[in-house]
Amino acid sequence: MARSGWVQVSAVVIAVFWAGQVGASDYFVSDDGAVELWLEADSDQDLVYLQTHRIDPTGRLDTLIQPLALEVQEDGSLGGQGWSQGAPVEIRLRRSDSEVEWIAPAQLSGRAGSVRMRGKYATAVAEQRLSQAQHGFAAADKALNAAWRELRQRLAEEDFAEVRRNQRLWLKFRDWFVADGDDAGINGPGTVPFLRLQTERTLDRVQFLNRLGKPRANPQLSGRYSDGIDRELRLRAIPTVDKHIFFALESQLPALHQPHQGGPISVAGRASPDAQARSWTATGDGVSPNPVVSADSELLIEPALDFESVWLSSASSELFTERLFFVAELDPASEPMREILLQLPATIFDHTTEGLSEKAKTPLLLNGYYEPFRLSESGLDFAMLDYGEGRVQLRRYADRDGGASVAIATQNVRAYQFELWRVDPSGAVHKLDPHEQLPGMGAADFYRDEGSVHDGQLLLELSADVPEIRASWLPSPDDESEPDFQLHWYWDNVGFGRYRSEN
Fold first, then answer.
1. 96 exposed, middle or buried (CB, 10 Å; 0-12, 13-18, 19+)?
2. Looking at residue 400, what DSSP letter applies?
3. What are phi and psi of 404, to 5 degrees?
């Protein structure tokens, strides 16, 4: 196979951890270079864990199937059911000493289209993989230079000087990678994983630079603002209430900006304007692990006259001031969670003791409380309301079309209820059937003997820390069995896939 083929075609990375049959980090590649397989031994497991990605011509990774466990079949092949783009697929693989054969399905789909999977994969040459990653990064870097030259012509000198300072900080971010000791030789500077991460970050930066300095079609305060690195601010003016906005701020690497800023920032809440409506004072709620921008910090938001950017500063003793640039309009997949709560009907509170009227939702979300409810946590994709002896948890799962699925778990004393809702990109809201959206949630799925019959109750829960839905089976008093598994559903931007964990 010509090495140039790595540059001309898309590639798919398939990570397979195969217990006891594969040496450490074996790679295989198809004849046309379009698909790459990675197999690695795990002596502690009897299953094979499979994951696939496409690397498109720009160098971006595109997830084709969520990680799943495969079992050895009677004919020696590996098989199991996975989930690709929200649809079930039956996976079959076979491995000999020198090659791997992908049996089924014949192809998989991703956001960039479908890719042929069926066929045999020979041992990959390390130099070819590295060359492909180097070419991908070089192409992304070339696109970055072109975007930078065009931006210099488009921006005024003062604005370009501001972006130049931001660009220097981004270059530190692009090359930031946690790897030391033995890990440095596997995924440190110059390795394939490192180059692919640099490529992803560079392509994101190209998109950011291409947006700067272009007039907004509908100038307004609502929107997504970013520094083009790791910090994003989401603002939503409330159509039903004057002089308030909802906000959500996230930053994964604040110490990159200022060494004293500590851990990640995750703050959400509401903001109100000053007398001239030129700046907004924002107060948050919830939990933030950052000591400088904590959950209850006051932030000052000052939008530019054209709403092309905002200045964000902290009113705490350790000040910071940063300029964030408009990057996109809001949609249900990116709105602050308070806005999502406003869009959902008040009937989601029907399983609580007191319930909540449609009229009462607005003061609850503006003030953070409305007896007996208190908004105790609100982040980019998670919100929790406490009341008496219960709580309501909501988690958003963003769709690729800009819409979102919202899971709602209600605990009322010792009673539990679970609902799923869909918010379309247009803002239309409708209820979903959890049994249709979450595969394999019957009582037998919690036991090794899937033919057994059990009485009991299904308990579905959410977590503030892990973006998955977790299910447990509570046997009835007459059923003395102990469930073998917990069930977990994860989101792949289209639908839910499932895996099981031992109790």
1. exposed
2. T
3. -155, 145
CA atoms of 362 and 129, how far apart (whole Å): 55
Provide the 8-state DSSP code for 260: G
Is the omega angle on the peptide bond into residue 372 within 30 degrees of 0, that is, cis? yes
The residue whose two tokens read 């060359």 is 131
Check if the beta carbon of residue 168 is closer than 8 Å to that of residue 160. Answer: no
* Helix axes 192-211 and 157-174, enclosed angle (nearest 10): 160
Return the CATH class of domain 5-124.
Answer: mainly beta
Burial 26-63 (b: 16+ CB within 10 A, else e): bbbbbeebbbbbbbbbeeeeebbbbbbbbbbebbbbbb
User: What phi and psi, each to the nearest 5 degrees, are found at residue 377?
Assistant: -155, 135
Name residue, tokens 């109100």: 272
**Strands 48-55, 11-18: parallel, antiparallel or unpaired by DSSP?**
antiparallel
Six token digits for residue 137: 């990064």
Reduced to 3 states (helix: H, G, I; strand: E, B; else coil), residue 143 is: helix
Whole-number CA gyration radius for the chain: 25
- DSSP-based three-state secondary structure for 357: coil
Residue 294, amino acid: S
In angstroms, rounded to a whole number, what is the distance separating the alpha carbons of residues 433 and 419?
8
| Distance set, CA 121 to CA 5, 186, 394 (Å) | 15, 22, 44
Query: Is 471 within 8 Å of 486 (Cβ atoms)?
Result: yes
Question: d(Cα 1, Cα 131) in Å, to the nearest integer?
Answer: 13
User: 3-state class of 113 per DSSP?
Assistant: strand
| First vs last C-alpha separation in the chain | 48
Name the token pair of 243: 């002089």
Angle at 381 between CA 375 and CA 443, to 5 degrees: 95
CATH match of 128-211 with 1.20.1270: yes
How far apart, in whole angstroms, are the C-alpha atoms of residue 119 and residue 96?
13
User: Which secondary structure element, helix H or strand E, spans residue 495, and what is its range?
Assistant: none
The HSE-up count of residue 233 (CA atoms within 13 Å, CB side) is 29
318-327: pLDDT as tens digits: 556 788 999 9
CA distance 36 to 124: 8
Residues in the chain: 503
* 105: preceding bond cis by omega (within 30 degrees): yes
Q: Which residue has the tokens 């469930």?
A: 483
281-321 pLDDT per residue, tens: 887 764 454 444 555 567 889 998 889 999 988 766 455 67
- Amino acid found at 365: L
pLDDT one-digit tens code per residue, 452-482: 778 888 889 998 888 899 999 988 888 888 8
**DSSP structure string for 17-50:** EETTTS-TTEEEEETTSSEEEEEE--TT-SSEEE
Q: What pTM value is reported for the model? A: 0.81
Ramachandran region of residue 390, left (φ > 0), alpha (ψ -120 to 50) or beta? beta
Q: How far is CA 441 from CA 214, 364, 472, in A?
A: 49, 34, 10
